[in-house]
Amino acid sequence: MGIDFLPDKPIYQQLIDRITGAIIRGTLQPGEKLPSVREYAVEAGVNANTMQRVYKELEQMEITETRRGQGSFVTADEAKIAMLRDEMKEQLVTSFLQSVEAFGFTTAEIVEHLQKRGDKR
Amino acid sequence: MIELRNITKKYGTRKALEDITLTLPHGKIIGLVGENGSGKTTLLKLMSGLLTPNAGSAVLDGKPIKRKVATNIAYMPDADMFYPYFTVGQLFAFYESQFTDFNPIKAKEIAQFLNLDLNSKLKNLSKGNRGRAKIAATLGREADYYLLDEPFSGLDPMVRDDIAKGLIRFTNPERQTVILSTHELKEVEPLLDEIIVLKGNRLIAHEAVDEIRDTYGQDATSWMVSLFRKGS
């Protein structure tokens, strides 16, 4: 029902990842209004308490802001979004490098390979 | 708050539930899982005042639960037990005549959300639409507690999805509690705050869903399966 969730991560965390992902991709624009907690809960097929927690954590991360009587909005602060992008890049690279190391590749040969792939595209 | 204290229920000499102690707070959606015959329906009926325990007590906000105390508890049975010649609208009118907390405006809104035609006779509805009508009538009550016995069982994925969304849309997580029994834990998990597991007529676990994923690193279904393996 609604979204398919991965089994090994809390659902609220996966919803936070979805929303931050949409902000990074630009599907959710700076300053854009988010659906209400209830609307989004219905759409995602999750408990409204879970969605409430998601909105609260996003606000604590300063990725969204709540305006009284108007609802939640993606931050209009481009610097915060840039920071979010950088954090995501860092996360991706870290987990990628962990796999690289697990297979015993050197960083140099992986960088070279990435370069080649980059040139092709 | 519903509190069950050391409840035992027997049917004749057969024990249906044994020594159950449980607290159900306000504002949660709670899943009740366990094998067939583990006592899920009996537990829901005890909470709704339809059954009385042989030992122990069931208490709602400090008062023992009896049929009459249980007016702000909406129980939805698994069985299809409505008059087949009623229309959906007449079913709502019947509910309004029986339950003071029934809100016909809310019920009609739910019917509309679920694409239910108020003029259709129940006997002419598909099983899925009868399921929709049943949940619309139940959620049409402004109850503090909704006790739903197998609201998803035997229904196709579209109907299950509608019912799940109706539950989220038309219950207020600040003051209403939903307790639902189900076998479809995998599908229902995203709806739940907490899970209660019964096995062999006893309570073997009561956990928050986020805790299960945080602590055990697995979803509720795998967690439940490992609980059952460990016990046997």
General description of the model:
The complex is a heterodimer of chains A (121) and B (232). Chain A is mainly alpha-helical and 121 residues long. Chain A folds into 2 domains: 11-76, Orthogonal Bundle (Arc Repressor Mutant, subunit A), CATH 1.10.10; 79-120. Chain A is 62% helix and 7% strand. Chain A has a two-stranded antiparallel ribbon with strand order 1-2. In chain A, α1 packs across α3 and α2 packs across α3. Chain A is elongated, with a radius of gyration of 18 Å. Chain A starts with 10 loop residues before the first helix and ends with a helix. Chain B has 232 residues and is α/β, with parallel strands linked by helices. Chain B has a single domain (2-231), classed as Rossmann fold (3-Layer(aba) Sandwich), CATH 3.40.50.300. Chain B is 34% helix and 26% strand. Chain B has helices spanning 40-47, 88-98, 104-113, 127-139, 157-170, 185-188, 209-216, 220-231; strands at 2-11, 14-24, 29-33, 55-60, 63-64, 73-76, 145-149, 177-181, 194-199, 202-208. Chain B has a 6-stranded mixed sheet with strand order 6-7-8-3-9-10, with helices on both faces. A 4-stranded antiparallel sheet of chain B has the order 2-1-4-5, covered by helices on one side. In chain B, a hairpin with a 2-residue loop joins β1 and β2. In chain B, α3 packs antiparallel against α4 (127-139) and α4 runs parallel beside α5. Chain B is globular. The model of chain B has no long low-confidence stretch (mean pLDDT 92). Chains A and B meet through α2 and α3 of A and α5 and α7 of B.
